[in-house]
Design brief:
The complex is a heterodimer. Chain A is α/β, with parallel strands linked by helices. Chain A folds into 2 domains: 213 residues, Rossmann fold, CATH 3.40.50; 64 residues, Alpha-Beta Plaits (2-Layer Sandwich), CATH 3.30.70. Chain A is 34% helix and 25% strand. Chain A contains 11 helices and 13 strands. Chain A has a 6-stranded mixed sheet, with helices on both faces. In chain A, strands 11-12-10-13 form a 4-stranded antiparallel sheet, with helices on one face. Chain A has a 3-stranded antiparallel sheet with strand order 2-1-4, with helices on one face. Chain A is globular, with a radius of gyration of 22 Å. By secondary structure, chain B is mainly alpha-helical. Chain B has one domain. Helices cover 77% and strands 0% of the residues of chain B. The longest helix of chain B has 35 residues. The chains are: A alpha/beta, B mainly alpha. At the A-B interface, helix 2 and helix 3 of A face helix 2 and helix 6 of B.
Amino acid sequence: MPEPVIVAQNLVKRYQDFVAVDGISFEVAPGESFGLLGPNGAGKSTTMRMIGAVSTRTSGKLSVLGLDPNGYGPEIRSQLGVVPQENNLDMELRVRENLMVYGRYFGLPHARVARRADELLEFAQLEDKATAKVDDLSGGMKRRLTIARALINDLRMLLLDEPTTGLDPQARHILWDRLFRLKEQGTTLLVTTHYMDEAEQLCDRLVVVDKGRIMAEGSPADLIRRYSSREVLEVRFGSTQNAEVAGRIQGFGERVDVLPDRILVYSDSGENELERMTAAGLRPITSLVRRSSLEDVFLRLTGRNLIE
Amino acid sequence: MSANDVGRARDAGAASDSIRLETLAAAVAAAARTRRYGSWYVAEHRFRVMRSYAQTVLFTAIGSPLVYLYAMGVGLASLVDGNLGDNAVNGVSYLTFLAPALLASSAIAVASEEFTYPIMLGFKWNPTFFGMNATSIQPGQIINGIVISVAARMLLTCTIYYVFMLVFGAVPGALGVVAVLVALLTGLAFGVLVMAYTITLKDDTGQLAMMQRFVILPMTLFSGTFFPLDLLPPYLQWIGWISPLWHGTELSRVFAYGMTEPIWLSLVHVLYLAALLAIGWVWARRLTVRRLNK
């Protein structure tokens, strides 16, 4: 079995007044696409920074690419690509120049960086923006440029912190497509996200993180199977009626969750549950049958929604 | 990967099995160039950024000696020399007295520009320093690279200033050109302190503008720039003694026109400026390590 690229054991990061990461443990194998899923403030980015060798852990063990970040920061970082949550492209430089200066930071010769920059502009579909000002790029383009920049060195692992937050659906799909290509080429991906669909699209395996702790671990399908049902029926009776109706549908499906605005019925067949409801004389204002998602897993595990 | 890298890896206490040693040696090799030249890569980046405002750099470098030397050195000097004679101040003409001080001030001006807002920019407004820190670059190298790049701009500015001083006939001393290096030392000694202070700011809520008004401007006025320090009342002279600009200006005058002062005092000027430079530099590096390690 190949040696894992990340081994975290009981990893803790404590700031003066709070614990951001509270003893998490996981391993990532080479070539794997691994996700940290959780709401804002769960400790995902902090974990990512510790793995990226820019944040010193408070306690626990951590090995990245076989090295301890405490003693080998530059050595680890030389083999990583990092896409931070906040774009930090240099606004005072042009698009291609951003790739050039970044490549030099890895000690690569000018000619090699120049060649690689042109390849990456093509990969990021930014060839005709090479001399544009960064400020003039759209949000999606800036993100693609940041990803291109992260790929300039000979990396063994790509860290992506909330790669598509704030992008419109079309831009997200273009980005996912690019990331999927990297995954196919065997690049190890480590992704944090609070988007279910993103985790389902990109991750082979993930951990659900909340308040600095790991709540569950597995593949997306695996987690859904374990913590949810095949389908979910969402019904709305109007906010004043939900509580009253809730009493009458206990025992429906495998489980019922009453939220302030709607009721969720977990079942292998949402349609069947809807028929039962109609037969019982209940008339929801709206109803929707959908496949179960990681959102449901998160709700089940924490009793809260991911995006609040 | 060289035998040397494997050696370093072994020294570092790697596990004995050969695969892990190879991994470590490859990692050490991958980061070796940046460990050695990282500061220069940062400087290279800063030079590219400076190129985007090269016109401003050149315009101020040429414009300010022209304006200042003419207005003060020729205009004001005719008034001073007219009243006090040809050997108006310190036994030389007013222009000769003033020019070395203006030279040192020009280095301070570059410092107060380059070590303030661009630093705030890199840590906060457009956090490129965090981007650098995610590569093999180390925090201290970011500071080194900034100092290198600003030193280069300062040297250019001071050299142009010195050429204008020659043109205006303001440098009788044979060793006058050394004043350019003194100005560089002065600007950097003051600048690294300003940089360290700027790194401590989480937000700019006017502190940098206040510093311009209440530190840099008074320092220029009370550092023996326009008149000798001993003309000030004794209770104000301490401003000059702690001011890097006063030390730099006095030392410049020694070289520019052979101003006489005890050797020990000249040594104090050099040591004081060197000490500020060392303290500010180390302080800025430490603050950066702390600020980037979140």
